[in-house]
Amino acid sequence: RKEVEQDPGPFNVPEGATVAFNCTYSNSASQSFFWYRQDCRKEPKLLMSVYSSGNEDGRFTAQLNRASQYISLLIRDSKLSDSATYLCVVNMGTGRRALTFGSGTRLQVQP
Amino acid sequence: NAGVTQTPKFRVLKTGQSMTLLCAQDMNHEYMYWYRQDPGMGLRLIHYSVGEGTTAKGEVPDGYNVSRLKKQNFLLGLESAAPSQTSVYFCASESPQVNTEAFFGQGTRLTVV
After folding, report:
1. For A42-98, where are the E strands, in sequence order?
2. Which pairs with CB-CB distance under 8 Å and at least 24 residues apart come from A79-84?
3. Cβ contact (<8 Å) for B104 and A45?
4. Which residues, other chains included, contact B84 with Cβ-Cβ below 8 Å and sequence gap of 6+?
5. What's the average model confidence in pLDDT over B84-97?
6. Cβ contacts (< 8 Å) between B10 and chain A: which residues?
7. Which residue in the set A32, A45, A103 is minimally distant from B98, CB to CB?
């Protein structure tokens, strides 16, 4: 079993749609959780951190469920510019600080 | 603000050749990482460093060596390149605090023929 699992997609949605991604992680001791965005042939960039209380940044909402060991990302009112790969990232908290990446979920927003 | 800079950005190697990828960061970060990214597999950790003079193996260290002689630089070496090392390599750095952002370089596209 992968340490961080995501549905690879692609998710093809029309502009204005709401889309949600889920991610599961295997290590219950994981400490920090993030969503990164990666555009084609570019480096990953932080989209948002995920806190236990959930957090929202404009059209983006991230939530964490520690009991079920999953995190989610909700994108409302999708824009063409949201087309990218979204990476679920977990700090496994095993005594070394190295981020473990999911393989990414590809989103394609269509006009 | 340069952030994290990787050199070179592109390289083609012949099997058996050696090369060094350089990562430099100007944010005074303690932690630095080398990842490789292959289609459908996400980013996998090769080696990492939690401070100057220290390095450790990650998930896929075989065929690579690293050095962190200076805090701002993290070098990744391929002693004898193999076609299986064809990949996109990303360097990243972050500070030790919890919930901080990791910053990535722009990547190095390496092809081994």
Report:
1. 45-50, 55-57, 60-65, 70-75, 84-91
2. A79/A15, A79/A109, A80/A15, A80/A109, A80/A110, A80/A111, A81/A109, A82/A107, A82/A109, A83/A107, A83/A108, A83/A109, A84/A37, A84/A38, A84/A39, A84/A40
3. yes
4. B63, B112
5. 92
6. none
7. A32
Structure tokens at B7: 């050199």
**What residues in A contact B102, CB-CB < 8 Å?**
46, 99
pLDDT one-digit tens code per residue, A4-60: 999 888 999 999 999 999 999 998 888 889 999 999 889 999 999 998 888 999 999
Write out pLDDT tens, residues B12-71: 999 999 999 999 999 999 999 999 999 877 899 999 999 999 999 998 999 999 999 999
| Shortest CA distance from A37: residue in chain B | B104
Nearest CA in chain B to A103: B42
